[in-house]
């Protein structure tokens, strides 16, 4: 009920009154209050807006720590993110990447991609992040040839939940995983990804770990699922 109120009713009313999208309001708040070139400041400012003013579907500060820890443990060279939204997690990941590492982030919505581009540039991490605009099932098969990806060290799934399973299967079929590649999926409880959990946990090629947490900016139970590819 809280999600419906925040995502549908309240947001539509505010959009109508202010004649702009919530995502644009988040960007404006960052441009006015965060420090240019400081990705930590950008992340903290988005968290402040979304916890105090309007809820948004970023990974958020609590699950963000799980994301941070995973990135730090892997120390990846090539990262794929599915679901850019406003660029929050792209900035969060990019600030931890070593020199020469790169993040390819896929966004289907052109408006979100445009917002994320400005957010990423303001944070000063545009040299590490490339936004790939379009549907994930069209972009994944292009990664090897068009974007010169050999294998992916880390995949962060945070887009449409019904795409988690088919996209994970497609990533494997395109030979984009190596032994030790890590997948991390957000929102596996709310809104939930039961098909993905069933698929990944029953697949002998993956070793899974569940991280209980809470839905971004709320006291609602959620979790992230980590899956290590065993080859």
TrEMBL record:
Keyword Nucleotide-binding: no
UniProt cross-references to Gene3D superfamilies, sorted A to Z: Vaccinia Virus protein VP39
One GO MF term attached to the UniProt entry: catechol O-methyltransferase activity
Details of cofactor binding: Binds 1 Mg(2+) ion per subunit.
UniProt cross-references to InterPro entries, sorted A to Z: Catechol_O-MeTrfase_euk, SAM-dependent_MTases_sf, SAM_O-MeTrfase
Cofactor: Mg(2+)
Gene Ontology annotations of biological process type: catecholamine catabolic process; developmental process; dopamine metabolic process; methylation
Coiled-coil residue windows: none
Keywords: Catecholamine metabolism, Magnesium, Metal-binding, Methyltransferase, Neurotransmitter degradation, S-adenosyl-L-methionine, Transferase
Residues that bind Mg(2+): 158, 186-187
Residues that hold S-adenosyl-L-methionine according to the record: 59, 89, 107, 158
Listed GO CC annotations: axon; dendrite; membrane
EC numbers, comma separated: 2.1.1.6
UniProt KW Transport keyword: no
Record SUPFAM superfamilies: S-adenosyl-L-methionine-dependent methyltransferases
UniProt binding sites for substrate: 161, 187, 216
Entry similarity comment: Belongs to the class I-like SAM-binding methyltransferase superfamily. Cation-dependent O-methyltransferase family.
Protein name: catechol O-methyltransferase
């Amino acid at each position: 009920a809280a999600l419906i109120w925040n995502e549908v009713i309240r947001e539509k009313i505010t959009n109508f009154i202010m004649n702009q999208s919530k995502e644009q309001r988040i960007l404006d708040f960052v441009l006015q209050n965060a420090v240019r070139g400081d990705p930590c400041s950008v992340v903290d400012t988005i968290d402040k807006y979304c916890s105090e003013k309007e809820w948004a579907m970023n990974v958020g500060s609590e699950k963000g720590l799980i994301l941070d820890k995973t990135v730090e443990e892997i120390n990846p060279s090539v990262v794929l993110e599915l679901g850019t939204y406003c660029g929050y997690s792209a900035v969060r990941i990019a600030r931890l990447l070593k020199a020469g590492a790169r993040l390819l982030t896929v966004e289907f919505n052109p408006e979100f991609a445009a917002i994320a581009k400005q957010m990423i540039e303001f944070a000063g991490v545009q040299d590490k992040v490339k936004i790939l605009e379009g549907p994930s099932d069209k972009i994944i098969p292009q990664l090897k040839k068009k974007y010169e990806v050999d294998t992916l060290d880390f995949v962060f799934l945070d887009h449409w939940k019904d795409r988690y399973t088919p996209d994970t299967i497609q990533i494997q079929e395109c030979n984009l995983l190596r032994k030790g590649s890590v997948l991390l999926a957000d929102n596996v409880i709310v809104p939930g990804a039961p098909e993905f959990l069933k698929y990944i946990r029953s697949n002998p090629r993956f070793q899974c770990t569940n991280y209980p947490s809470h839905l971004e900016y709320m006291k609602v139970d959620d979790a992230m699922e980590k899956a290590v590819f065993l080859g």
